[in-house]
Predict the 3D structure of the following.
Amino acid sequence: MTINHRKTGWAAVAVSLLFSVLLTLNYVQMWKDDLIIPGPGVTEVKWLSDYEPSLRGTLGDTRVFVMEGKEPGATFLVLGGTHADEPAGWGAALILVEHCTVARGRVIVLPQCSNTGFTHNYPQEAHPQFISFPRPDGTKRTFRHGSRTGNSAEHWPDPEVFIQYPHKQKYSGEECRNPNRAYPGRPDGTFAERVAYGIQQLNRKEKVDMQIDLHEGQPEYPFINALSGHPRAQDLVSLAALEMQMYDLDIGAEVSPPSFRGLSNLEMGDMFPDLMAMTSETVNPTQGKIRGITDEFLPVDGIDAFYDRAAQLGYLFAPWEGGSPLKKRIGRNMQELQALCVALKEVTGKEIEFGRIPSYEDLMTNGVGYYFNPPPAEPADPGFRALPGVWRLFTQR
Ligand SMILES: [Zn+2]
């Protein structure tokens, strides 16, 4: 090798090292917790590790916000961010925490149920790492736009085939990091199963009466604008769908198929005989396979020319007029949370009442950012509360 070749070789190594360092610095920004500013309705802030201590110090630990009303009543668990790339779920949960109040009973909210999913994204899908919401006063709030699955740094490598516990249903290997295949969870299982076990323990300790897991799906997927429940919650789901229709919001009412194991509504419903467990889905083009330009605006504005065309050709399962902006999707979720409380009382006599909560119309009028609290003038750098497992091997003894 000549001197020149050697120089070129070292230069190539140096350039790739530089890019690796820059990309790593960019990537680790997602390991920092989002700023969440509890509003007047929050009476206690806990962590999932208060229910399952083995999660402490891991990316799986996440904030649990308790909103207790003045009047006694039932307990409602709201799971947002099971899939961190489905912002209508975590966005609705964040509006509960930052803006809403509870008059009767308790509402327990996990806006970032799968915190590990928020610590990485899908760069090869061109998914943004962060999305922002402008507020009426000109400030904005920014949150991480994560991934459907947990961070592989907490569970690596993926198996060829993931065998669900305890029903032994087989899924593709990557699904071992999907939080919504990990229920009911177990303390000594995969990382996702340990997080699911934390939710199981929370259910047990807090004696939850009703649980909703807020999801989103792609526009070409048949199960969208839909509410699905454990077989025992069938009446409640149907009544809630009727209640939604009073506000001109169509929502499909379905029963969770007993052959589809590992889902929060089916497994938690099977485990706790008094629990009414549901899942719902709004329409998110960022998850779709035929979408066009994918940037930080698509998850918020929900406008896409390819889906416009697909809708014209009649290929979509839900109305597409005006696209599917996040304010519409979160508005549906806010109305659904209220409909579920009405239906719970009707079916079981148990009562949960929100005090302040925006309606679908409110979200359509004011937008999403209106319901988030103003950021502090100089936001403190949250630092790294926890590092991924692989990283901990090098930094902790
Ligand atoms: Zn989902």
About this structure: The chain has one domain: 40-390. The chain has ten helices and 13 strands. Residues 237 and 253 are 6 Å apart (CA to CA).
